[in-house]
Amino acid sequence: MGNPQQVAHVRRNVWTLPPGDLTLAHYAAAVAEMKKREPDDPTSWTYQAALHGTSTTPALPLWNGCKHGSWYFLAWHRMYLWYFERIVRATVVQLGGPADWALPFWDYDADREQARIPPAFRDEEGGSNPLFADRANLVNEGEPLPVEITSPAYAMGRTLFVGETEFGGGITPNGSTFWNRKGALEDTPHNVVHSYIGRWMGRTTTAALDPVFWLHHANIDRLWSVWASRAGHDNPDDPRWISQEYSFFDADGSQQSLAASDILDISGRLGYTYEEPVPISPPVPLPPSERTPPVPESTSGPSTPGPTPPGRREMAGSSEQPLRLVGRAASVAVPIDRRTTLPLGEALGVDEPETDRHVFLSVEDIEGETNPDTVYGIYVNLPEGASREQAEGHRVGNLSFFGIERAQDPRGDEHPHGLRVSVEITPLVRRLQAENAWDEARLRVTFLPLGPAAAEGREGVADEDPPVEIGRVSLSYS
Amino acid sequence: MALEGAGRTRTAPASRSRRPRVTLGYELAAVAAWIAVIALTVTGAVHGLHPAAPATAPAGEVAHHHVSPAHPPHGVPGPGTAGFGSLAMWTLMCVAMMLPAALPALAHVGENSLRRRRRRAMAGFAAVYLTVWTGYGALLLAAAPLWSRPPGHAVAAGALALAAAWQLTVHKRRALRDCHRSFPLPLSGPSAAAGPVRFGLRHGGACLRSCWALMAVMAVAGGGAAMLAWMALLTGIVLAERFAAGPGRVTRLAAGLLAAAAPAVALIPAAV
User: Where in chain A is the domain with CATH 2.60.120?
Assistant: First the structure.
């Protein structure tokens, strides 16, 4: 990396750009120009998208480089976005636009209006709109993304970066595109927004061809920046993470490299910043309950200088049979092994002496041929006939399938993986215990499709989604 | 689920508990197997598995024993026999050579089992996995008369050439990929006890498809220091393929190494 950047480029909220602002017009013109470039030009639209992933063979230099399901996810995508922005900016300037052009971000969680895809991206305009792409779930008709998938509340409430259920993801080797130790931010909103928008956005090999990809990732990058700026939140200092370098193409077509240590100071080292952050929702996604025992934000005690990572997880129960999802609600029972949980004291979620006990729900060995473009909410002990508001009190996370094709059938030297989602459910367990609604013998996990299709009910729908099979749903504690 | 990921999660920073790795016992078992094989070889108790058993050293090494094929040493079955001793030695070699490759899968079983059933589940997986390899060994030993007539070095050269060729097939690549697949392990219900057994069969099967040709070299290799040298080399290949970030390159490199070794062994009988 060269000298620190002199100019601060401000990435602004796409929905609150002032009237007459030309940020998106310049973006559209640059995208159109990049789409005209030769496919083997590293600054062309298709080449830039292929850096993330492509099904085209043979692969050209740096193609298929994206990192997912890994603690490298955020760093790789920040670098990717930064170089892409430089290429677009140079193109904007080449076309007579301003030298301070910066990518806008799409803050779909700001409110219901902003949860809709910006109008400039929706209309095909007879094929003349370079920002248009085919999208699922009526997104291009202005349907807002469901609030369940846009909220980064769970992720922003995690105090640690490293760890499968923590903010940034679990430790994985560098190399493969898809591991399955994704962090909370990568899961929601990143993966679920990809999957819900669907079509190109729903597949790693085509996602970056959709112009809204870059605004989505600018928002993910912004959320990382906001998280890291909060007291007590630290990015990894592990040498394996901090020194990891990745290569990209710069605006002049030259190959350049950055290490994670180069990208942590975005204004000082990378020369950009974000518009004043829009307030983020409260960190605990569960509705308030007067009887809810206080949930410690971290596991640290009074004498502990910082948050302590949970220890090794111990299994307490799992589903007994695989579960097949085809776009409709589905439930599975998870028997709890009482001989495992009883020695813990009262049970999994008691206050004393197990205040630092964490309970996790994992959905494991998820396999399928293709991403069905359906996102499910994961609900624990959902009462029969619960309203959406009641159901929200039982939702512990989301299940989406972004990358399922590549994870299951990777290229080259990569190893096949089933996908995996893991969330901490300690607050819900404690609340249900306080309400005498916690069954010590078993829990029931329900998967409900999110979005308009779910609201209308899909029982009468003849077509099923391409099937996705869940190998196991497990309950564990640490 | 990624088997590698499951193993590496334990390296997350500052684990609250300092419990040993779940696979520690199996790691020690593999080390013990190596010590046992070395001890048995050095003391002359065994001299390899090939019925002709030309107990000579590989190129550049000095054999501890030179035994006429017509007069097998004590502890080694005569030509054409597939005795219990040879099968036991084969099993010991499998524990030394192949058990380390299964450590991520063993960790997967251990970490995804109830604590009170962890030992049983891991033992069940390991037993089935090793049974797959022992069954293969029994098959090789039963078929030993087929290659007891040609000179040992010619058979070994053929086995090396076969192993080199297998390394380059798409079947090898698929098998190696299957070695990285995990398996859902129910904790209760009728499938709970069968889970580790089924996973052991599947993982052992994938491992066998990946490494059968490599291990066939061990079946026809000579004894003594030569056997130890081949064990070390082949174990290195198996583990590098299994754990390297870029196994394709390792596989091709190993193919080249084995292909080069084949004519060397054919021309220099002392190398096997």
Answer: 314-477
Residue in this structure with the two tokens 């310049």, named with its chain if needed: A26
| pLDDT greater than 60 at residue B55 | no
Distance CA A449, CA A400 (A): 10
A318 touches chain B (CB under 8 A): yes
Please tell me the predicted confidence (pLDDT) of residue A388: 85
Kindly report, residue by residue over B225-243, the tens digit of the pLDDT: 888 998 999 999 999 998 8
**In chain A, where does the domain assigned CATH 1.10.1280.10 lie?**
9-274
CB contact B62 to A (< 8 Å): no
Q: Which of A181, A300, A308 to mutate to test the interface with B (most CBs of B within 10 A)?
A: A181
Q: Rounded to a whole number, what is the distance in Å from the CA of A352 to chain B's nearest CA?
A: 18
Give the model's pLDDT for residue A86: 97
- Here the tokens at position A389 are 């508001």
Residues of chain B with Cβ-Cβ distance to A340 below 8 Å are: 114-116
CATH 1.50.10, applies to A314-477: no
User: For A208-329, where are the E strands, in sequence order?
Assistant: 245-249, 255-259, 272-274, 314-318, 323-325
Q: A164 at the B interface (CB within 8 A)?
A: yes
Q: Are the beta carbons of A226 and A160 closer than 8 angstroms? A: no
Chain B contact present for A333, CB below 8 A:
no
CB contact under 8 A, B246 and A471: no
Provide the Cα torsion B80, B83, B87, B93; round to 10°. Answer: -70
Task: Quote the pLDDT of residue B220.
Answer: 82
Handedness of CA A409, A411, A414, A420 (dihedral sign): negative
> Facing residues of A422 across strands?
A362
Which residues of chain B are within 8 Å of residue A310 when distances are taken between CB atoms?
16
The pLDDT score that the predictor gives to residue A407 is 79
Residue B76 pLDDT: 38
Q: Tell me the ipTM for this assembly.
A: 0.78
pLDDT for residue B144:
81
Which of A254, A257, A253, A243 has the alpha carbon at shortest distance from A1?
A: A257
User: Are residues B238 and B255 in contact, defined by beta-carbon separation less than 8 angstroms?
Assistant: no
Residue A249: what are its φ and ψ, rounded to 5°? -105, 135
Indicate the residue of B17, B189, B248 with minimum beta-carbon distance to A413: B248
Residue type, position A145, single letter: L
In this complex, the residue of A337, A365, A413 whose CB is nearest that of residue B184 is A365
Best mutation target among B187, B188, B253 (most A Cβ atoms within 10 Å) is B187
Instruction: Tell me the fold of A9-274.
Output: di-copper center containing domain from catechol oxidase (1.10.1280)
User: Residue B13: which of A309, A316, A472 has the nearest Cβ?
Assistant: A309
- With bands split at pLDDT 50, 70 and 90, how would you rate the model's confidence at B28? very high
Contact call for A315 and B114, based on CB within 8 A: yes
User: Cα angle at B145 between B143 and B146, to 5 degrees?
Assistant: 75
Cα distance between residue A72 and residue A91, in whole Å: 29
Query: B105 CA to chain A: closest CA distance, Å?
Result: 13
Q: Where are the domains of chain B?
A: 22-271
The C-alpha of B206 sits at a distance from chain A's nearest C-alpha, in angstroms, of 13
- pLDDT average per 10 residues of sequence, chain A (478 residues): 62 94 98 97 98 92 92 97 98 96 96 95 93 95 94 95 93 73 94 96 96 98 96 95 96 96 94 73 41 35 44 88 95 92 58 66 93 95 90 95 82 76 92 86 94 59 82 93
Structure tokens at B109: 């079983």
Phi, psi of A334 (to 5 degrees): -120, 95
The whole-angstrom separation of Cα A356 and Cα A358 is: 6
Residue B18: closest C-alpha in chain A? A311
**In this predicted structure, what is the pLDDT of residue A299?**
32
Task: End-to-end CA distance of chain B: give it in Å, rounded.
Answer: 41
- Name chain A contacts of B1, Cβ cutoff 8 Å: 180, 364-365, 417-418, 420, 471
